[in-house]
Amino acid sequence: MVEIDTERCKGCGLCVEACPRKILALSTEFNKAGHHPAVLLDPDRCIYCLACARLCPDLAITISKEAETV
Amino acid sequence: MAVLFSRPQSLTDTPFRYCPGCHHGLAHRLVAEALDELNLREKAVGIASVGCSVYTNEFFNCDTQQAAHGRAPAVATAVKRARPECFVFTYQGDGDLASIGMAETIHAAARGENISIIFINNACYGMTGGQMAPTTLPEQKTTTSPLGREAAREGNPVDMMKLLDALEGPAYLSRVVLTSPGKQAAAKKSILRAFRAQMKGLGFSLVEILSACPSNWRMTPVEALHYVDEVMAKYYPPGEVRVAKEVLEG
Amino acid sequence: MKDQVELVSGNRAVASGALDAGCRMYFGYPITPQTEIAEYMSAVLPEMNGVFLQAESELAAINMVYGAAGAGRRVMTTSSSPGISLMMEGLSYLATAELPCVIVNVMRGGPGLGNIAPAQGDYFQAVKGGGHGDYRTPVLAPWSVQEIYDLTRTAFDLADRWRNPVFILFDGLLGTMMEPLRTREPIPERAAPSWATTGIFAHGANDRAPRSIYTLHMPEGALTEVNRRLQAKYREIAREEVRYDEHFTGDAEILVVAYGSVARSALQAVRVARQQGRKVGLFRPVSLWPFPEEALHALSEKVRKILVAEMSSGQMLEDVRLAAAPSCKIDFLGAMGGELIYPGTILSRLQEE
Questions:
Q1: How confident is the model at residue A70 (pLDDT cuts 50, 70, 90)?
Q2: Who among A12, A51, A63 is closest to B221 (CB)?
Q3: Where are chain B's structural domains?
């Protein structure tokens, strides 16, 4: 599961750039600080490579997975 | 549920104050992960500097001191000698470390002080709005080199790795980038080696992190990410410059 | 331990006072006329499991003091006028972070590189605060080798009591001259204070919250609050830490006001004048900040005239003017650039009356 803390997100887009599956995008909505936060478009296609979380300068992404499938 | 990626213990919960796409946050996380992995949080005293990194004390979940501009290596020297059982690291930008604090940096390194320095090189003064730094690249435009840095006018850049490598004191010197998960893994290895050098009492260790400053470079965060790899890393090549053999032992 | 009497210089007395107060950390940079403090510390501190470090500059030295004080150790630095100027940035940070430490200025002639002769031209810098911002540091001004030792010990206690840097100010004459010194029982270094950055794990407190020592206060109103707290502390120091010394003031009609080595000349002049039947006395501020203004004001209402003798163009003179009753006439005898003020010079001025 990829959880994006949309209030911590500053909409820099580095996660979008880093995602090999291109399943992240910046929202058209604003968060409280006025940024367009990142959103996960297609969770089923996520391969849990963690690239988005590693490139997030604001640690806005937490990733977890069902234990038996790890 | 197994957590695959979450916030390290050595960071507080305070959201970073940095601009969108700034690499300070990436560097903070890697330093905090290294502190976690080596169980150093409870022994650590982190020394913040002046510039964007002035808030470091709010972000690292360990004891901290905030030093005057450029003086972090002198402060760290004294903290380490006052409390040798502590783990002492500084977190400094390029204006702080390579300009106003050059004397403190060079002499702490020359003495071989048993401290670790995280050096953020973003080729400009971030906090004050993107002025020329000692590390500003040739031809790079900043608010105080608006025509582009030219040796005859603004002088030449300073390569801290070359300078520090001339000294006997350093046990570990490395330059890294954080632009991809793979390069971050190499960066993390360098930070761990630098920290182990201090834990083993081997002397001065420093990791230079080439870091993007999208706001002051007048680039998008993604453009700035690529600029680090394609321009900055060409002038300042990443890699380990000094590895005392004891760093790798045990 | 039996009291010991040794013949030592004022500079040595600084070192002995600091060591006997439990100070085990010294950072400094060579500068005449106080380098022998560093030389002595470099010889003895390693044997005492202490730290001596010759810094790359006075800038580095004062910031090392910041680090060590923040880590909860008793720590000091010493220098002379031009070197103290370089430390002023650090002083402002130390005062703001409320870090206890002792700084000794063995004054030489200024301004500029000046010379290496005794002078008192750094009064403003020490007493009024030479660094940026609204801060204060207690300033102690000894006049003998014995008092240098005693006040150095006192300075460490004041620094801890008030969580503040404390200055000791005297000139190169006192630093280099030798007198008998009676030392007292040394004490061990005190434990780290409860605010010190010792690492979370220190002293068995494995789960305590992280501590931070910082001087940046950006949230709205935060810096105002810090300043108010500091000023309240300074007012308390001003009430509680006034120190001065009086000689022959009971029936004095003329009062000499002098501190440090000049007060020695003044006392000699006063003694001779008394033998000649003149009603003169000496008032010697020992704490320059807080300045003993109430005591001096009371005396100024009784005497006809005050003569301020000072090896500067008239720096303490301003504080005497502020303290004295408006009716009191104030005269000044100054000397600059390493010129000394001899007893005979003061006596001649007293005889002019």
A1: very low
A2: A12
A3: 24-248
Number of domains in chain C: 2
Helices (H), C188-259: 222-240
Cα angle C90-C58-C16, degrees, rounded to a multiple of 5: 95
Residue A36 touches partner B, C-beta closer than 8 Å: no
Which structure tokens are listed for C107? 């004054």
The nearest alpha carbon in chain B to C213 belongs to B65
For B59, which residue in chain A has the nearest alpha carbon?
A: A58
The pLDDT of residue C4: 78
Secondary element (H or E) of residue C22: none
- Model confidence over B35-83: pLDDT tens digits? 999 999 999 999 999 999 998 999 999 999 999 999 999 999 999 999 9
Whether pLDDT at B201 is above 50: yes
Instruction: Out of B60, B61, B74, name the one closest to residue C64 (CB).
Output: B74
> Where does A2-65 sit in CATH, by number?
3.30.70.20
pLDDT, tens only, C257-306: 999 999 999 999 999 999 999 999 999 999 999 999 999 999 999 999 99
Interface residue C73 vs chain B (CB under 8 A): yes
Q: Which residues make beta-bridge pairs with C180?
A: C7
Cα B137 to Cα B133: distance, rounded to the nearest angstrom: 9
Query: Pick from C25, C60, C63: which is nearest to B82 by CB?
Result: C25
The ipTM is 0.97
Looking at the domain covering B24-248, what would its CATH class be? alpha beta
Longest dimension (CA), chain C: 72
- Which residue is closest to C76 within chain B, CA to CA? B78
Which pLDDT does position A68 carry in this prediction? 61
Distance of alpha carbon A38 from alpha carbon A48, whole angstroms: 17
Chains B and A touch (3+ CB pairs under 8 A): yes
